[in-house]
Protein backbone atom coordinates (compact mmCIF):
# COMPACT_ATOMS: atom_id res chain seq x y z
CA UNK A 1 0.00 0.00 0.00
CA UNK A 2 1.11 3.55 -0.78
CA UNK A 3 0.64 5.66 2.34
CA UNK A 4 -0.38 9.25 1.56
CA UNK A 5 -0.67 12.35 3.73
CA UNK A 6 -2.93 15.10 2.33
CA UNK A 7 -1.94 18.68 3.19
CA UNK A 8 -4.35 21.46 2.25
CA UNK A 9 -5.88 24.40 4.10
CA UNK A 10 -9.30 23.74 2.53
CA UNK A 11 -11.42 21.17 4.38
CA UNK A 12 -13.30 20.48 1.14
CA UNK A 13 -10.08 19.80 -0.78
CA UNK A 14 -8.81 17.51 1.97
CA UNK A 15 -12.05 15.57 1.85
CA UNK A 16 -12.09 15.33 -1.97
CA UNK A 17 -8.45 14.30 -2.24
CA UNK A 18 -8.95 11.70 0.48
CA UNK A 19 -12.03 10.25 -1.24
CA UNK A 20 -10.34 10.11 -4.64
CA UNK A 21 -7.16 8.45 -3.38
CA UNK A 22 -8.95 6.07 -1.02
CA UNK A 23 -10.85 4.66 -4.01
CA UNK A 24 -7.60 3.24 -5.40
CA UNK A 25 -6.98 -0.29 -4.08
CA UNK A 26 -3.25 0.26 -3.58
CA UNK A 27 -3.41 3.69 -1.86
CA UNK A 28 -4.17 4.42 1.79
CA UNK A 29 -4.68 8.00 2.99
CA UNK A 30 -3.14 7.78 6.45
CA UNK A 31 -4.04 11.32 7.47
CA UNK A 32 -4.47 14.96 6.55
CA UNK A 33 -3.24 18.33 7.75
CA UNK A 34 -4.55 21.86 7.36
CA UNK A 35 -1.18 23.63 7.54
CA UNK A 36 2.57 22.88 7.47
CA UNK A 37 2.95 22.85 11.26
CA UNK A 38 0.34 20.12 11.64
CA UNK A 39 1.82 18.37 8.58
CA UNK A 40 5.25 18.33 10.20
CA UNK A 41 3.88 16.49 13.24
CA UNK A 42 1.80 14.10 11.13
CA UNK A 43 4.83 13.17 9.01
CA UNK A 44 6.74 12.23 12.16
CA UNK A 45 3.76 10.29 13.52
CA UNK A 46 2.50 8.55 10.37
CA UNK A 47 5.62 8.18 8.18
CA UNK A 48 3.80 8.52 4.82
CA UNK A 49 5.30 7.47 1.49
CA UNK A 50 3.94 10.43 -0.49
CA UNK A 51 2.69 13.91 0.39
CA UNK A 52 0.15 16.01 -1.51
CA UNK A 53 0.78 19.69 -0.81
CA UNK A 54 -1.22 22.82 -1.55
CA UNK A 55 0.98 25.56 -3.00
CA UNK A 56 -0.46 28.31 -0.79
CA UNK A 57 -0.81 27.51 2.90
CA UNK A 58 -1.54 29.47 6.11
CA UNK A 59 1.02 30.14 8.88
CA UNK A 60 3.90 28.87 6.68
CA UNK A 61 3.81 29.08 2.89
CA UNK A 62 4.07 25.87 0.92
CA UNK A 63 7.46 26.70 -0.60
CA UNK A 64 9.11 27.34 2.78
CA UNK A 65 7.68 24.09 4.11
CA UNK A 66 8.78 22.19 1.00
CA UNK A 67 12.30 23.63 1.19
CA UNK A 68 12.63 22.55 4.82
CA UNK A 69 11.14 19.13 4.09
CA UNK A 70 13.49 18.44 1.20
CA UNK A 71 16.48 19.47 3.26
CA UNK A 72 15.63 17.57 6.45
CA UNK A 73 13.32 14.71 5.47
CA UNK A 74 13.18 14.35 1.67
CA UNK A 75 10.15 12.49 0.36
CA UNK A 76 8.02 12.44 -2.81
CA UNK A 77 5.69 15.45 -2.94
CA UNK A 78 2.92 16.05 -5.49
CA UNK A 79 1.81 19.69 -5.54
CA UNK A 80 -1.87 20.63 -5.87
CA UNK A 81 -1.76 23.90 -7.81
CA UNK A 82 -4.21 26.66 -8.60
CA UNK A 83 -4.60 27.65 -12.23
CA UNK A 84 -3.39 31.23 -11.83
CA UNK A 85 -0.25 33.08 -12.87
CA UNK A 86 0.90 33.06 -9.25
CA UNK A 87 -0.03 29.38 -8.87
CA UNK A 88 1.94 28.43 -11.98
CA UNK A 89 5.05 30.33 -10.86
CA UNK A 90 4.94 28.85 -7.35
CA UNK A 91 4.43 25.35 -8.76
CA UNK A 92 7.47 25.65 -11.04
CA UNK A 93 9.52 26.85 -8.10
CA UNK A 94 8.26 23.87 -6.08
CA UNK A 95 9.52 21.52 -8.82
CA UNK A 96 12.86 23.32 -8.60
CA UNK A 97 12.91 22.63 -4.85
CA UNK A 98 12.31 18.91 -5.38
CA UNK A 99 8.57 18.27 -5.74
CA UNK A 100 8.22 15.40 -8.19
CA UNK A 101 5.02 16.47 -9.97
CA UNK A 102 1.81 18.48 -9.71
CA UNK A 103 -1.89 18.38 -10.47
CA UNK A 104 -3.89 21.54 -11.01
CA UNK A 105 -7.07 22.48 -9.24
CA UNK A 106 -10.03 22.90 -11.60
CA UNK A 107 -11.12 26.42 -12.45
CA UNK A 108 -14.82 25.50 -12.22
CA UNK A 109 -16.79 23.67 -9.50
CA UNK A 110 -14.16 22.07 -7.26
CA UNK A 111 -15.91 18.78 -6.46
CA UNK A 112 -16.84 17.87 -10.03
CA UNK A 113 -13.55 19.16 -11.41
CA UNK A 114 -11.34 17.23 -9.00
CA UNK A 115 -13.17 13.99 -9.77
CA UNK A 116 -12.33 14.54 -13.45
CA UNK A 117 -8.67 14.61 -12.38
CA UNK A 118 -8.99 11.42 -10.30
CA UNK A 119 -7.16 9.10 -12.71
CA UNK A 120 -4.36 11.61 -13.27
CA UNK A 121 -3.93 12.18 -9.53
CA UNK A 122 -3.86 8.47 -8.72
CA UNK A 123 -1.35 7.78 -11.51
CA UNK A 124 0.94 10.56 -10.29
CA UNK A 125 0.78 9.34 -6.70
CA UNK A 126 1.73 5.84 -7.85
CA UNK A 127 4.65 7.20 -9.86
CA UNK A 128 5.77 9.46 -7.00
CA UNK A 129 5.91 6.47 -4.65
CA UNK A 130 8.55 4.85 -6.88
CA UNK A 131 10.87 7.87 -6.88
CA UNK A 132 13.84 8.16 -4.56
CA UNK A 133 14.04 11.85 -3.68
CA UNK A 134 17.45 13.38 -3.06
CA UNK A 135 18.04 15.91 -0.27
CA UNK A 136 18.02 19.57 -1.24
CA UNK A 137 21.65 20.67 -1.10
CA UNK A 138 21.48 24.38 -1.83
CA UNK A 139 18.81 27.01 -1.44
CA UNK A 140 16.98 27.68 -4.68
CA UNK A 141 16.43 31.28 -5.78
CA UNK A 142 13.30 33.03 -4.61
CA UNK A 143 10.25 32.75 -6.83
CA UNK A 144 9.63 36.44 -6.31
CA UNK A 145 12.87 37.59 -7.90
CA UNK A 146 14.34 36.90 -11.35
CA UNK A 147 16.85 34.04 -11.24
CA UNK A 148 19.18 35.54 -13.82
CA UNK A 149 20.35 38.94 -14.89
CA UNK A 150 18.91 40.80 -17.82
CA UNK A 151 19.63 39.08 -21.15
CA UNK A 152 23.28 39.55 -22.06
CA UNK A 153 24.35 41.23 -25.32
CA UNK A 154 25.42 37.80 -26.57
CA UNK A 155 21.77 36.78 -26.69
CA UNK A 156 20.99 39.55 -29.16
CA UNK A 157 23.69 38.55 -31.66
CA UNK A 158 21.62 35.81 -33.26
CA UNK A 159 18.15 37.22 -32.58
CA UNK A 160 17.24 37.77 -36.23
CA UNK A 161 19.04 34.90 -37.95
CA UNK A 162 17.13 31.82 -39.00
CA UNK A 163 18.62 28.40 -38.40
CA UNK A 164 19.32 25.61 -40.89
CA UNK A 165 19.59 22.98 -38.16
CA UNK A 166 17.32 22.12 -35.22
CA UNK A 167 17.53 20.55 -31.77
CA UNK A 168 14.44 18.72 -30.50
CA UNK A 169 13.80 17.88 -26.84
CA UNK A 170 10.97 15.94 -25.21
CA UNK A 171 10.21 15.33 -21.53
CA UNK A 172 7.51 14.65 -18.95
CA UNK A 173 7.74 13.95 -15.20
CA UNK A 174 10.79 15.78 -13.87
CA UNK A 175 11.21 17.46 -17.24
CA UNK A 176 10.94 21.11 -16.25
CA UNK A 177 14.19 20.93 -14.29
CA UNK A 178 15.85 18.58 -16.80
CA UNK A 179 15.06 20.94 -19.68
CA UNK A 180 16.47 23.83 -17.67
CA UNK A 181 19.70 21.88 -17.13
CA UNK A 182 20.09 21.29 -20.87
CA UNK A 183 19.20 24.85 -21.94
CA UNK A 184 21.54 26.41 -19.37
CA UNK A 185 24.45 24.51 -20.95
CA UNK A 186 23.70 25.64 -24.51
CA UNK A 187 25.50 28.73 -25.90
CA UNK A 188 23.60 31.82 -27.17
CA UNK A 189 24.31 30.91 -30.82
CA UNK A 190 22.78 27.43 -30.52
CA UNK A 191 20.63 26.28 -33.46
CA UNK A 192 16.90 26.69 -32.81
CA UNK A 193 15.42 24.37 -30.17
CA UNK A 194 11.88 22.95 -30.21
CA UNK A 195 10.55 21.44 -26.99
CA UNK A 196 7.56 19.30 -26.01
CA UNK A 197 7.10 19.06 -22.25
CA UNK A 198 3.94 17.47 -20.87
CA UNK A 199 2.43 20.47 -19.09
CA UNK A 200 -1.12 21.79 -18.73
CA UNK A 201 -2.47 24.89 -20.42
CA UNK A 202 -1.82 27.88 -18.20
CA UNK A 203 1.55 26.60 -16.99
CA UNK A 204 3.53 26.47 -20.24
CA UNK A 205 3.77 30.27 -20.59
CA UNK A 206 5.11 30.60 -17.04
CA UNK A 207 7.58 27.78 -17.73
CA UNK A 208 8.83 29.49 -20.90
CA UNK A 209 9.22 32.82 -19.10
CA UNK A 210 11.15 31.10 -16.31
CA UNK A 211 13.50 29.42 -18.81
CA UNK A 212 14.00 32.75 -20.57
CA UNK A 213 15.17 34.29 -17.29
CA UNK A 214 17.37 31.38 -16.25
CA UNK A 215 19.19 30.45 -19.46
CA UNK A 216 21.34 32.10 -22.10
CA UNK A 217 18.80 31.45 -24.86
CA UNK A 218 15.74 33.44 -25.85
CA UNK A 219 12.95 31.11 -24.69
CA UNK A 220 9.28 31.60 -25.53
CA UNK A 221 6.01 29.73 -25.65
CA UNK A 222 5.66 28.74 -29.30
CA UNK A 223 3.09 30.52 -31.45
CA UNK A 224 1.79 29.25 -34.77
CA UNK A 225 4.01 30.55 -37.56
CA UNK A 226 7.00 31.46 -35.36
CA UNK A 227 10.21 31.32 -37.40
CA UNK A 228 12.86 29.09 -35.82
CA UNK A 229 15.73 31.44 -35.00
CA UNK A 230 19.31 30.89 -33.94
CA UNK A 231 19.67 31.11 -30.17
CA UNK A 232 15.94 30.65 -29.57
CA UNK A 233 13.96 27.86 -27.88
CA UNK A 234 10.24 27.26 -28.46
CA UNK A 235 8.13 25.43 -25.86
CA UNK A 236 4.87 23.77 -26.89
CA UNK A 237 1.86 25.47 -25.30
CA UNK A 238 -0.20 23.31 -22.98
CA UNK A 239 -3.04 21.54 -24.82
CA UNK A 240 -1.45 22.09 -28.27
CA UNK A 241 0.75 19.85 -30.36
CA UNK A 242 3.91 21.57 -31.57
CA UNK A 243 5.24 20.57 -34.99
CA UNK A 244 8.23 21.69 -37.02
CA UNK A 245 7.42 22.64 -40.62
CA UNK A 246 9.15 24.09 -43.68
CA UNK A 247 8.22 27.49 -45.07
CA UNK A 248 10.44 27.87 -48.11
CA UNK A 249 14.01 27.76 -46.84
CA UNK A 250 13.00 28.39 -43.23
CA UNK A 251 11.70 26.30 -40.38
CA UNK A 252 8.55 27.46 -38.59
CA UNK A 253 6.40 26.32 -35.68
CA UNK A 254 2.98 24.87 -36.36
CA UNK A 255 0.42 24.39 -33.60
CA UNK A 256 -2.71 22.27 -33.68
CA UNK A 257 -5.24 20.77 -31.30
CA UNK A 258 -5.42 17.36 -32.90
CA UNK A 259 -6.30 14.31 -30.83
CA UNK A 260 -3.96 13.51 -27.92
CA UNK A 261 -1.21 11.05 -28.82
CA UNK A 262 -0.14 8.60 -26.11
CA UNK A 263 -2.75 10.45 -24.00
CA UNK A 264 -0.78 13.69 -24.32
CA UNK A 265 -1.21 17.03 -26.04
CA UNK A 266 1.49 18.25 -26.56
CA UNK A 267 2.98 14.91 -27.53
CA UNK A 268 6.70 14.30 -27.93
CA UNK A 269 6.04 11.73 -30.66
CA UNK A 270 4.15 14.35 -32.68
CA UNK A 271 7.05 16.80 -32.36
CA UNK A 272 9.76 14.24 -33.16
CA UNK A 273 7.92 12.92 -36.22
CA UNK A 274 7.50 16.44 -37.56
CA UNK A 275 11.23 17.05 -37.06
CA UNK A 276 11.97 13.86 -38.96
CA UNK A 277 9.79 15.03 -41.84
CA UNK A 278 10.89 18.68 -41.96
CA UNK A 279 14.57 18.53 -40.96
CA UNK A 280 15.69 14.91 -41.29
CA UNK A 281 19.40 14.55 -40.62
CA UNK A 282 19.72 18.32 -40.03
CA UNK A 283 18.49 17.69 -36.49
CA UNK A 284 19.58 16.16 -33.20
CA UNK A 285 17.15 15.02 -30.52
CA UNK A 286 17.06 14.13 -26.83
CA UNK A 287 14.39 12.32 -24.83
CA UNK A 288 14.54 13.23 -21.16
CA UNK A 289 12.96 11.98 -17.94
CA UNK A 290 9.28 11.10 -18.03
CA UNK A 291 6.57 8.58 -17.24
CA UNK A 292 5.19 6.37 -19.99
CA UNK A 293 6.45 5.88 -23.54
CA UNK A 294 5.63 9.12 -25.40
CA UNK A 295 8.55 10.08 -27.65
CA UNK A 296 10.18 6.65 -27.66
CA UNK A 297 8.88 5.69 -31.10
CA UNK A 298 9.51 9.17 -32.48
CA UNK A 299 13.12 9.02 -31.29
CA UNK A 300 13.50 5.62 -32.96
CA UNK A 301 12.18 7.03 -36.25
CA UNK A 302 14.71 9.88 -36.03
CA UNK A 303 17.45 7.34 -35.29
CA UNK A 304 16.46 5.36 -38.39
CA UNK A 305 16.91 8.52 -40.49
CA UNK A 306 20.48 8.94 -39.29
CA UNK A 307 19.73 11.63 -36.69
CA UNK A 308 21.94 11.78 -33.59
CA UNK A 309 19.57 10.73 -30.81
CA UNK A 310 20.14 10.79 -27.05
CA UNK A 311 18.25 9.26 -24.13
CA UNK A 312 18.78 10.48 -20.58
CA UNK A 313 20.21 7.75 -18.37
CA UNK A 314 18.32 6.08 -15.53
CA UNK A 315 20.55 7.43 -12.75
CA UNK A 316 19.77 11.09 -13.49
CA UNK A 317 16.13 10.64 -14.55
CA UNK A 318 13.32 11.28 -12.09
CA UNK A 319 11.37 8.58 -13.96
CA UNK A 320 13.12 6.39 -16.55
CA UNK A 321 9.97 5.61 -18.47
CA UNK A 322 10.16 7.50 -21.76
CA UNK A 323 13.94 7.42 -22.23
CA UNK A 324 14.10 3.83 -20.98
CA UNK A 325 11.51 2.78 -23.54
CA UNK A 326 13.49 4.53 -26.30
CA UNK A 327 16.58 2.56 -25.28
CA UNK A 328 14.59 -0.70 -25.35
CA UNK A 329 13.44 0.08 -28.89
CA UNK A 330 16.99 0.79 -30.07
CA UNK A 331 16.30 4.46 -30.71
CA UNK A 332 19.22 6.07 -28.86
CA UNK A 333 22.71 6.56 -30.25
CA UNK A 334 23.83 7.58 -26.74
CA UNK A 335 22.47 7.11 -23.21
CA UNK A 336 23.90 9.94 -21.13
CA UNK A 337 23.63 11.60 -17.72
CA UNK A 338 21.74 14.87 -17.81
CA UNK A 339 24.78 17.22 -17.48
CA UNK A 340 26.36 15.73 -20.64
CA UNK A 341 23.37 16.00 -22.96
CA UNK A 342 23.70 19.61 -24.16
CA UNK A 343 27.28 19.16 -25.37
CA UNK A 344 26.41 15.81 -26.96
CA UNK A 345 23.50 17.36 -28.88
CA UNK A 346 25.74 20.03 -30.37
CA UNK A 347 28.50 17.54 -31.15
CA UNK A 348 26.02 15.16 -32.76
CA UNK A 349 24.54 17.95 -34.84
CA UNK A 350 27.97 18.99 -36.10
CA UNK A 351 29.01 15.45 -37.08
CA UNK A 352 26.08 13.89 -38.86
CA UNK A 353 25.79 10.17 -38.26
CA UNK A 354 25.88 7.84 -41.23
CA UNK A 355 22.58 6.15 -41.97
TrEMBL record:
<dbReference type="Pfam" id="PF00072">
    <property type="entry name" value="Response_reg"/>
</dbReference>
<dbReference type="InterPro" id="IPR000673">
    <property type="entry name" value="Sig_transdc_resp-reg_Me-estase"/>
</dbReference>
<feature type="active site">
    <location>
        <position position="172"/>
    </location>
</feature>
<dbReference type="InterPro" id="IPR011006">
    <property type="entry name" value="CheY-like_superfamily"/>
</dbReference>
<comment type="similarity">
    <text>Belongs to the CheB family.</text>
</comment>
<feature type="domain" description="Response regulatory">
    <location>
        <begin position="3"/>
        <end position="120"/>
    </location>
</feature>
<dbReference type="InterPro" id="IPR035909">
    <property type="entry name" value="CheB_C"/>
</dbReference>
<feature type="modified residue" description="4-aspartylphosphate">
    <location>
        <position position="54"/>
    </location>
</feature>
<feature type="active site">
    <location>
        <position position="198"/>
    </location>
</feature>
<feature type="domain" description="CheB-type methylesterase">
    <location>
        <begin position="160"/>
        <end position="352"/>
    </location>
</feature>
<dbReference type="Pfam" id="PF01339">
    <property type="entry name" value="CheB_methylest"/>
</dbReference>
<comment type="function">
    <text>Involved in chemotaxis. Part of a chemotaxis signal transduction system that modulates chemotaxis in response to various stimuli. Catalyzes the demethylation of specific methylglutamate residues introduced into the chemoreceptors (methyl-accepting chemotaxis proteins or MCP) by CheR. Also mediates the irreversible deamidation of specific glutamine residues to glutamic acid.</text>
</comment>
<keyword id="KW-0378">Hydrolase</keyword>
<feature type="active site">
    <location>
        <position position="294"/>
    </location>
</feature>
<keyword id="KW-0597">Phosphoprotein</keyword>
<keyword id="KW-0145">Chemotaxis</keyword>
<protein>
    <recommendedName>
        <fullName>Protein-glutamate methylesterase/protein-glutamine glutaminase</fullName>
        <ecNumber>3.1.1.61</ecNumber>
        <ecNumber>3.5.1.44</ecNumber>
    </recommendedName>
</protein>
<dbReference type="InterPro" id="IPR001789">
    <property type="entry name" value="Sig_transdc_resp-reg_receiver"/>
</dbReference>
<keyword id="KW-0963">Cytoplasm</keyword>
<dbReference type="InterPro" id="IPR008248">
    <property type="entry name" value="CheB-like"/>
</dbReference>
Amino acid sequence: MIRVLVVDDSALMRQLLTEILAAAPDIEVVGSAQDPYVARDRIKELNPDVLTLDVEMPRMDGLTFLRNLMRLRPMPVVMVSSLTERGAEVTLHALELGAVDFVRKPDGPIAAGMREYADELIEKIRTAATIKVKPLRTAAPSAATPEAQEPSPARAISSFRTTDRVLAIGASTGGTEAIKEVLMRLPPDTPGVVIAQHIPAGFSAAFAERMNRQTGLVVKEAADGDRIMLGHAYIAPGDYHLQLARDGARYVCRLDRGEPVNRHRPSVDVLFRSVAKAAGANAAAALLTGMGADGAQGLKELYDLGVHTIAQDEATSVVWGMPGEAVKRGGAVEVLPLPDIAAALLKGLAAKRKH
